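Predict the 3D structure for this chain.
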Amino acid sequence: MHDEFHRIRRLPPYVFAEVNKAKAAARAAGEDIIDLGMGNPDSPTPPHIVAKLVEAVQDPRTHRYSVSKGIPGLRRALAGYYRRRFDVGLDPETEVVATLGSKEGLANLAAAITSPGDTILVPNPSYPIHQFGFIIAGAAVRSIPASPDEEMLRALDRAVRHSVPKPTALIVNFPSNPTAYLADLDFYREIVAFCREHEIWIMSDLAYAEIYFGDKVPPSILQVPGAKNIAVEFTSLSKTYSMPGWRMGFAAGNAKLINALTRMKSYLDYGAFTPVQVAATAALNGPQDCVQDMRDLYRERRDVLIRGLHAAGWDVPCPDGSMFAWAPIPERYAPMGSVEFSKLLLARAKVAVAPGIGFGEHGDGHVRIALVENTHRLRQALRSIRSFLQSDTNGPWGADPDQATI
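Done. Predicted structure below.
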């Protein structure tokens, strides 16, 4: 018998595990580790959403199996959100399905539409499920640049001309995890026109739609005329309403893709617990002050983090959206790569970050820093980082990086 199952053999070792192991060991030794590694919102879910959950769970009728595609009121609420936010009309019956977070929806749609050997175009670096959902389903993934610009468009053209078989699907994700890139509607128009011409499905991950900090408001790809002919978009309540553990997301758009995902899910789950769906409906239909409060909170944290890193001598771009900073590894540490640098930062500054290589090999020159601690803890982390960087002027191996022994 084989030592490992076929689909598991296609998954590389989980690169975050090394840093997580070191973090756990440090905490077990009593060290105070400030964890900026996982994008796990630390704010409580708004009270009116929690209250609706409590109310709904008191009704024993909600304790039975739910509806895999989402209760009708929830699907109508998502359609209402798209109408208000993007001026996009959706049919709640045929163009919306509720998912157990956007991650589950992406993975199950990949399984539903992929044939072994299909070529899928995925930005590199990107959120791991974007490529591994398709790899698990048997596809071959071709990496393209992650930035929403001419470089990505040229890569798409090369992929169509040189991939065998021709690509069948493209993943886009703006605001992006991990890079924090934002795309505008003009870029989406070019993507939609290209993919319509070459009959390529588009899957847009819009999980960070409401986390933006300037005048550049993230659009939906479904705003482009004709996009629903080829595109489906995934959204989530996890970040918008601080509901990560509730596992509530959606897919919306092309009716054929929505039907494929709905059919796949009908064999796999009975949907989220009904009170969770009722509370999610209240989130979408209820007061939205909490969304602005969330945005203001992340903006304040972003400003504290970026100013502090610059003061420490670490030049990190200021993100216009998402809940992450995509930080180039300081030049003198660059030869280490992102895993070893993350472990060094943990050991010397007691700060945990996510190694960039976990998001694809082209992310190895960066680490991802999540805005998931309050400003007091961020300032504490920044003091430690500054002390580490300024006391270690020659890097971890002295003057000669060729003599590195990590």
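Confidence is low (pLDDT under 50) at residues 397-406.
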